[in-house]
Amino acid sequence: MSTSSAPTRSAIVIGGGIAGLSAAFDLHRAGWRVDIHEAAGLWGGKVQSSPVGDRLVDAGPDTFLARATAGYQMCQDLGLEGELTSPVAPVPAYIARAGRLYPLPTGSMLGVPTDLDALANNGLISAEGVERAKVDLSADATPLVDGDISIGALCRARLGDEITDWLVDPLIGGINASDIDLLSLRAGAPILAAAYDLGPSLVKSLGEMMPSTGPTLGSAKPAQPVFYGLPGGIARIVDGIIAALTAGGAGLHLNSPIASLADAMARADAVVVATPTAAAAHLLEPVSPSAAAELAAIPYSSVAQAVVEIPRSGVERELDASGIMFPRGEGRLITACTWLSSKWAHYHRPDSVLLRLSSGRYGDERNAALTDDELVDALLADLRSVEAVTAEPIARRVKRWTPAFPQYAPGHLARVERILGAVAADAPALRLVGAAYRGIGVPACIDDGRSAAASLVDALG
Q1: Which residues have C-beta within 8 Å of that of residue 159, sequence separation ≥ 6?
Q2: How much is the average pLDDT of 213-220?
Q3: Alpha carbon distance 216, 226 (integer Å)
Q4: Do 389 and 310 form a contact (C-beta atoms < 8 A)?
Q5: Residue 182 pLDDT > 60, yes or no?
Q6: Domain with CATH 3.90.660.20 in the chain
Q7: Does the pTM exceed 0.85?
C-alpha cells in the first residue's frame, strides 16, 4: 500500500464486486483516499464461496483463464500465486446428446473444430454435419454488419447448424448463459473474431492460431495451464483485496447503497460505478442521460445452480472429466454438470463426489418458478438421463444469480464506446467498470477496474 501519510485525492467506488474492488485496490495503492460502498452485505459480487457440507465451495465462478494475465497478476500482488492450481481431470468435458455422452472433439477451440478427421471419428456430429463443415474451408467471406455479427449467424454460415447447435452453443452459450444467435462475435468470443479477421475459414484460422493461443476446451491437454483456481475458492482474491484495503485504512461500507451520483461526485475527486447496468443507469440518468439510456438497454440472463455432495457409491460411472455440457437442443433444464471433485484436486474425497448442477440461460427462466428443493430434484433428474446417480445428496447448496450475465448483442462494443464517450463528456472524473462492458470473466473485470484506476491516476494525479 502507499506510504503517503496524507492522501491528496479521493474516490468513491460504488459496488463491491471484483471490478470495483480492483479499482479501489489500485487507487488506494496510488495514495488516494478510497471509500467503497456496497449495497449488499457481502463483498465480491458474484465471486463468492459458501459452505457445502463441511467445506467452502465456489458459489460463482470456480476458475479463471490463465492466458488472461490480469487474474494471475492480481494473485501475484496479493501473494496468492503460489497457491494457484489447475484442473486435474484427464478429459476436458463431455457433451450430452440423445442420452449419450461424447468427449469434446480434440483440436477444437470454443467448439469450432480445427481437425475435421478427429471430429468425424468422435461420433457426436453426423457424417453429414462433418461434410457441411468442410464448406468453411473454401467459402467466400461471410458478410458482417457494421463490423460485427452474432456468433450463431457466423458459425451457421461457415460450419452449418449441427456443429453450431451441438458444439459451439454449449461451450460459448454455456459460458455466457446466452443464446449465441443473439450474442456478439466481437464482444462474446474475441478469439473467434480474431480468427475470422485472419481469414474467412474458421477451421483454418483457428488451426493456425492454436499454437500461439494454446488449446482451449477440447484440445489435447497443454503443457501450460489453461485455467486457474484456488483452494477454498477464487473468492480468496476478494478476501485478499479486502484485507489489503482494511490494513491501509480504506473506507469499507457494506449495506450502504449510494442514492445520488451527483452527491457522490460532490464529495470526492472521482467516482467509479461498478454495479450492474440497471443500477448504473438509474444513478447516471441525472448526470449523463444518453449513457443511462444505452446502459438500460443491455439485457441480462439469470442462472441458478445447485452444488450437491453425493456418496461415491451412488454414482456408477467413472468421473474422468471436468463435467458434462447439455446443449440447448436437449431441451433440458440443466445446462451443465461440473464434476468439481474430479476437476479440482482440492475438492477430491475418496468416499463422496461434489457436483455442480447449473441451469438458466438467456430466454430460459424455468428455474425461477421452482423452489430450491424442486430445482435440485429437477436438475438431478436431468443428470440421470445420461449418468447413473442412485444416491440422494448428503449435502446441498442452491445459489441463484439474478441478474447474472449481461448479454452482448451484435454491436455491443460500439455501444460501450458510445456510453463511455458520453460519460467522458458529461462527467470526466467518472468511470464505469464491470462485466457489462468488455468481458464477463474474472480477469476481464479485474483488468477493467485496474484500467479505470490507472486512467484516473493519470488524469488527476
Answers
A1: 112, 113, 132, 133, 135, 136, 168, 202, 203
A2: 43
A3: 7
A4: yes
A5: yes
A6: 300-406
A7: yes
Q: What's the CATH superfamily of 300-406?
A: Protoporphyrinogen oxidase, mitochondrial; domain 2 (3.90.660.20)
- CATH 3.50.50.60 domain locations along the chain: 10-45+234-298+409-460
Q: Is pLDDT of 223 > 60?
A: no
10-45+234-298+409-460: what fold? Answer: FAD/NAD(P)-binding domain (3.50.50)
Domain 107-213 CATH assignment equals 3.40.80.10:
no
pLDDT in tens, 3-59: 445 668 999 999 999 999 999 999 999 999 999 999 999 999 999 999 999 999 999
Helix (H), strand (E), coil (C) string for the chain: CCCCCCCCCEEEEECCEHHHHHHHHHHHHCCCEEEEECCCCCCECCCCEEEECCEEEECCCCCEECCCHHHHHHHHHHCCHHHCECCCCCECCEEEECCEEEECCCCEECCEECCHHHHHHHCCCCHHHHHHHHHHHCCCCCCCECCECEHHHHHHHHHCHHHHHHHHHHHHHHHHCCCHHHCEHHHHCHHHHHHHHHCCCHHHHHHHHHHHHCCECCCCCCCCCCEEECCCCCHHHHHHHHHHHHHCCCEEECCCCCCCHHHHHHHCCEEEECCCHHHHHHHHCCCCHHHHHHHHCCCEEEEEEEEEEEEHHHECCCCCECEEECCHHHCCCEEEEEEHHHHCHHHCECCEEEEEEEECECCECHHHHCCHHHHHHHHHHHHCCCCCECCCCCEEEEEEEEEEEECCCCCHHHHHHHHHHHHHHHCCCEEECCCCCCCCCHHHHHHHHHHHHHHHHHHHC
Decide: 302 and 400 in contact? Cβ < 8 Å.
yes
